[in-house]
Design a protein that fits this description.
With 175 residues, the protein is of the alpha+beta class. It has 4 helices and 4 strands, in the order H-E-E-H-H-E-E-H. It has one domain. The chain has a 4-stranded antiparallel sheet. It is globular and about 75 Å long.
Length: 175
């Protein structure tokens, strides 16, 4: 289960950066890092990732806690699977735990990464959100592009095979 090191590192860096932002910025403060493209902006998010809010804070805390437990169980069950699939789940787990800690400590999530281009801004996010997003991209990519040798389509007709139209089941229609 060495892949859990990735989860631990994400939680550590996520919490470290959030503590730094919370200690050095006032709520709503923003500083430019790379022009208008990248800014550090301290916001507190009571909703889900990227500011999505449709339920109370206890819903998100409970959801994050249950999701974290499910991810640990999946990681344990999939310990013999490909590294990339386990890494994807570990990234998602690290992000979920990072934001869960915020929910327990502050009742909301600390966000600070503010990206934009040409007057259009992405919702402010954090390292945990980034880890969840990258983990999901890995999983979706694997689902779309990774074909297992055992999943080959065996439905092709080979030369010398009987024509399905000539099968015994179709004999009842030849009367």
């Amino acid at each position: 289960m060495r892949v859990l090191i990735a989860s631990v590192l994400i939680v550590f860096f996520d919490q470290f950066t959030k503590i730094q932002i919370k200690d050095k910025f006032y709520l709503g403060e923003s500083i430019s890092i790379w022009g208008d493209v990248l800014r550090l902006t301290y916001v507190e998010n009571p909703g889900m990732a990227f500011g999505i809010a449709f339920a109370g804070p206890w819903f998100f805390t409970t959801f994050s806690f249950i999701a974290s437990i499910v991810l640990v169980v999946f990681l344990f069950k999939l310990r013999e699977e490909k590294f990339i699939s386990r890494l994807a789940l570990a990234l998602i787990l690290g992000g979920a735990v990072g934001n869960l800690i915020d929910r327990f400590l502050y009742g909301r999530v600390i966000d600070f990464l503010d990206l934009g281009l040409a007057g259009t801004r992405w919702p402010v996010f954090n390292i945990a959100d980034s880890a969840v997003t990258v983990g999901m991209i890995f999983l979706i990519t694997m689902i779309i592009f990774d074909k297992d040798e055992n999943d080959k389509d065996e439905a092709t007709i080979r030369p010398g095979d009987k024509n399905p139209a000539d099968s015994e089941e179709r004999d009842i229609w030849k009367k």
